[in-house]
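User: C-alpha cells for this complex, please. No commentary.
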Amino acid sequence: MSPTPAPRFAGTDTYVASEDLRLAVNAALVLQRPLLVKGEPGTGKTLLAEEVARALGMPLYAWHVKSTTKAQQGLYEYDAVSRLRDSQLGDPRVADIGQYIVRGVLWQAFESEVPAVLLIDEIDKADVEFPNDLLRELDRMEFSVYETRQTIRARHRPLVVITSNNEKDLPDAFLRRCFFHYIRFPDAATLQAIVDVHFPGLRAELLRNALDLFFAIRDLPGLKKRPSTSELLDWLRLLVAEQIPAEALHTHDAQLFVPPLHGALVKNEQDLQLFERLVDMNRRGR
Amino acid sequence: MLVDFFLHLRSAGLPVSITELLTLLEALQKDTIAPALGDFYFLARTCLVKDETRFDRYDRAFAHYVHGIEARAASAGALPEEWFRERLRRALDPAELARLQALGWERLMEQLQQRLHEQDGAHHGGSKWIGSRGTSPFGHGGIHPQGVRIGGPSNGGRTAVRVWEARRYRDYDDHVELGTRNIQVALRRLRRFARAGTELELDLPDTIAATARNAGQLDLRLVPQRLNRIKVLLLLDVGGSMDAHVRGVEQLFSAARAQFRNLQSYYFHNCVYDQVWSSNRRRHAERCDTVDLLRRHRADTRLVFVGDATMSPYEILQPWGAIEGGNEEPGATWLQRLVHQFPRVAWINPEPEGLWTYRPSVGIIRELLGGRMYPLTLEGLTRSMRMLARGP
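Assistant:
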C-alpha cells in the first residue's frame, strides 16, 4: 500500500521484548495479519499492544472483551429503544437511522486517518462462537451495516493484536488467519533486564535477594497460581516504597522463609497456607 | 520451495495448511528476517504453529529436518576450505579457536578431507573416523579439544545449544498435564443452552409487534438470557484401588462442580449396585437407592461414571458379589438399567488406556457401556464431552 518500508518494532525503553516476540510483531506488521498472543497471566500480553502503539507512534483502539460480549458490539450497535422512544415523542431525528447507530471499536479503528493498533483483549472470555463471527472482518477489514446499507472499509489496515488466556480453545479457521506467539515466562537474565527497565536505581543486593526469593517461591511444588512478572514488579515497587532493607530478604543459612509484603506474590489463601507449612517443615527438618 | 519442510511437519502431526505455507513464503519474500536459521525457526513457528501445546512437536520436527539437511550437506563431496574456516570461526568461541590453532588449520583440514574420503559409512564412538560420541577430532557429541563439530548436538559441553534443541515447550504438550483449569476447558464442551431465569435481553421483533398492537404505545418485551442448563449426574468410584487416583479425580470433581450448575454426584465402590451414597463419610448411614436415581432424573441427563473399573469379574457378574455385600442382583444388571435409562453416558477411567486390555473387568464394563470408556487425560475428556454433547 504505502511505498515506505514498514516500521519495525524493537521493544521500548519500558518493555523488554524477546527476540522471537520482536520477530512475530514485525512479521505481523509487514504481512498485515492479526497477531494472537498467549501466555501466563501477568507476562505482559496486553501491555505489548500498548507498547507497540507507543513505539510506532500509532493510536491504540482497545476492546476489552467480556463474557457477554457479542461480535456485533465491536462493529456497531443499533439503539432501537431510543429510536422507538423518540418516534413516540415526535423527534425529527427519527427520520435518519444513522443517528441511532453507535460505532464500535472496529469501526473506529477502520475509520482512523493513520494506521492504528487494534487490541482485542482476552478474546477467549467471550462465547465460543465469538472469534468465528469476526473472521470476515479480520480477513478483509470490511463489514457492512445492515441498517444504513453502507460498507465500511478500513482506510489503513490496523495491526490487530489479540490476547488470549487459554480458557477456551479457539476455532481452527480463526487460528489459520493469525500469527501466533506464546510469551514464555522470562528466564533469569531477561527478568533482570525487565526489572532494570522499571527500577533503574534499585540496589543490586536488594534485587539479587528479591530475585532469588522470587524464583524459590515459583519453584514451590503444589502452588495453585505461581507468581509472574507483573507480580514481581508490584512486589519490588512495594519493597522500595516501604524501604525494606536488603538484609530483610536474606537469611544467613539460605533457608526458606516468608518474606515481607508477600501478599503481592502469593495471592491465594491455600497457596499462602502451603507456603507457611513448607517454611515450617523446612525449619523443623533442619 | 519449502514443500519438503511443509510435508515433513505434516507427517510429524502438525496440522499446517497450505495458506499458512504461502504466508510464510510471502514473509520470506518480503525480507522480514535476516537469512539465519534461528530467525527462520521463529518465523516458521509464528506462521505455522498456532498452539503452544504443539511447540514441542514442532521443535522435534524442526530438529529432525535440520539434522537431515546438515547430514546431507556434510556428506557432500569436496568441501571448500573457506567454508570450513568460516563455519569454525562462527561456531567456536575464542578459547576454542586458540586451542584449534595449536593443531594448525592446514593439518586439520587435510585430515578432515582425507577421512571424509576414506570413511564410507556412519560411525559412532571410536577415535579415528568421523561420527558421533567418540574421541576423533571430527564428528559430534564426542570429546576432543581440537575437533570440528559435524552435525548433531555437542556432548553437553558448552557449545550453544540451538533454540529448537532446547525442548523448552516439552511441558506444554497436551497429552501431559491435567489441571483444574484445562479440565474446565474440556468440560465446557458439554453445554446446552436454554433460556431460563430473569428476563434481561430485549426481544426486538416481539417488542415491535407488541408496540404495534398497542397502537404505538411503547411496550418493551424482554427474554431471559441463555444459560447452560445441562444436567449431569456424576457417579464416582471411591476406595480401594481408586485411592491412587484421588488427586486427578478431585481436580475433575472440582472442575465439574464449577462448570455445571446442575450437577448431582454420588459415590459407589467398584461397581454400582442397589445403593449409592452421597457423602463418603456417612456412607453407611446415608444411602440412597439406585432406583431413586433412575426415577428422579430425566432421560436427557448426562450420566458420567468415574472409576478405574478394576475388580474381580465376579463382583460385576454374580449376585451377592459386591465387596460390601447385600446386592441381590448383579452389578451388571444395575449398570444395564442405568445405561438404558440414560442413553447419554460415558465412563472416565483414570488408568492409562494401554492397561485396559490387561484387566478383564474393564473389558466387561466397557462392553456394558457400548465402548464409551475414556481415559482421564485432557484429550480423553474432550472426546467424552463431545460425545455426550452430540449424542451416541
